[in-house]
Fold:
Amino acid sequence: MTALRGRWPPVAVLVAAVAMLVASLVWVAGDGSAPPGPTTRTAGVPGEGPVRTMDDADRAAERFADQEGLRVGEVMQFSNGYYAQLLAPDGSRATEVLIDPDSGTVQIEFGPAMMWNTASGMMPAPGRTGTAAIGPDQAVRIADQWLSEHRTGLHAAEPDRFPGYYTLHTLRDDHIVGMLSVNATTGAVWYHTWHGRFLQMREHLGGA
Structure:
């Protein structure tokens, strides 16, 4: 896989590309069955101008979270823009969003958040948001195996659980480099190639 260059592409283009290329972007460590598909929350919210600081990113993410009855958890800055986790009222992780640094537009993150989220992805799967076939420890082992084969020198941090999948930071010498996701049903791995270089992170208390 090669990293996307420049800013993140428009959602409509990405959704079409992801749908066609998903098979080439994931490595399956399970039975090879198709992942639970993509849902409905992809439009996002318009930006209110450039996002230049972590405080700006917080405010942008909060606009999206407020309209969904969610709140902001972890916020990260990468060289290509900002990323945030959105939490449900009970503190569980609901979804992941991207914040465009030029416009401030917030959208559901393409990749696993669109394709695998069984509660709010492009193809939600009612009744499949409970117990995962793959547990957190197994998700770490799957991630580490994938990294040993495709990103030598990196290893996985503890997993953050979302409906239908896990997202894990990738580390080099215990310093964050990027992130990947593991499908909680099939064990497929999806590396987040679109972020660019990690710059900084802010965590809001209350994540699960």
